Amino acid sequence: MASYKILIKRSAQQEIESVGTKKDRQRIISRIQSLAHDPRPAGSEKLSGSPYFRVRQGLYRIVYEVQDDVLVVHIMKVGHRKDVYR
Q1: I need a labelling partner for 68 at 20 to 30 A (CA). Which of 5, 40, 57, 75 fits?
Q2: Cut 0.90: pTM above it
Q3: Domain 5-80 maps to which CATH number in 3.20.20.190, 3.90.1170.50, 3.30.70.240, 3.30.2310.20?
Q4: Is the pLDDT of residue 1 over 70?
């Protein structure tokens, strides 16, 4: 299986940088990097009414889009679970 390319939206990059602790940021970055090998891991869910998927990392959610035809995972939003879907 080919590896997917990870693209992170500028606003999502800023959201990652604003996450509370360095440990949480490292876990989120590690989780995003793992999406390059498996863009639909166990525990990921497709969001209803949109082309996006979400994966959990602790109290945070990573919302992303998978483009299988060009092997790209586009990170759209990263945030605390109470705020990310707004």
Answers
A1: 57
A2: yes
A3: 3.30.2310.20
A4: no
